[in-house]
Amino acid sequence: MPTSTSTTTVNPRDAATVILVRTLNDGSWELFLARRHRRQSFMAGAFVFPGGQLEKSDCESEISSLVFAADGFHPQVLLQDGSLTPDRALGFFVAAIRETFEEAGIFLAGDSKGNFITFHQEEALTRFAAHRQALNSASISFADILRKEKILLFPDALIPYSHWITPEGEGKRFDTRFFLARLPEGQKTVSDYSELTEFLWVTPQNALSMHYARKIILMPPTLKTVMELTQFSSVDELFAAAKRRILYPILPQIFEQGVLLPHDPEYGLEQYRRPANPDEPSRIIAEDGVWKAVFCKR
Fold it and tell me: Which terminus of the chain is more solvent-facing, meaning fewer CB atoms within 10 Å of its CB: N or C?
């Protein structure tokens, strides 16, 4: 998210991204990050969570009929956004699943009993790799894959975590819902080598260390999220806390050193302002070419 002084108004496009996590044998846990292609026009070279733009097909009734979820699954309630229609709210979950499959090869889907699909057999792995390639080239629809494989999407495998909006003044803007998801047993991540060129599984603490050592680049939303994730010693603890979070749109405000977050004392976008929180960094600045979260000095 480079700083910008442009006054051009660009409406943000709806998008979804997934913080994919896995638990290791010793009880510790890691998150998945993938590097965006250097030729990409948005966040080129940065390590990000898999995700992408909400598509019209994600919100259509055709896809909603291919969903398996518990009776208590209510997308609008989970996203804490009553302004969304039911179809559009569900569409964010569908987009998150679709993009995770497209970019990381992970499919949050399975049978009508709630069992995730697995890729233990080479034939299944090869078949779904072909589906993924066809989906990325737009030669097949997501719904077609679900019907061919006789599987259903599992949107309640996703837990809404946060809601970030690209700052005003940027040439490309996204209104992105962040979700948490566990890596399903029997699946493994595989980069798509087009938008995302390489990936790594890493603890939040090590991801920060690599960022500060200039081994990877974390842009402000990813950096702030990874910093938050360092608080949790287990995936269970993280998911329990996520279910209690109050979600609100985070629209950073550009200033000369970087961006102000909505709880910063000098944040000036009234619609998105949040109460001051002296215990949490409120701005993200570029220092010697590295993004860092800092407290407001007053």
Answer: C
Contact present, 8 and 172 (Cβ < 8 Å): no
Q: In what order do the strands lie in the sheet with 283-287?
A: 253-255, 258-260, 283-287, 290-294
Reported as type and span, the H/E element at residue 94 is helix 86-104
240 DSSP assignment: H
Centroid of chain to Cα 117: 22
Structure confidence at residue 5 (pLDDT): 45
Q: Could you give all domains of the chain from N- to C-terminal order, each with its CATH number?
A: 13-250 (3.90.79.10), 252-298 (no CATH)
Pairing of strands 13-23, 174-182: parallel
The CA–CA distances, whole Å, from 96 to 149, 150, 288 equal 19, 20, 34
Continuous segment of H or E residues that includes residue 235: helix 235-242
Under 8 Å between Cβ of 184 and 21: no
Residues 6+ apart with CB under 8 A from 289: 214
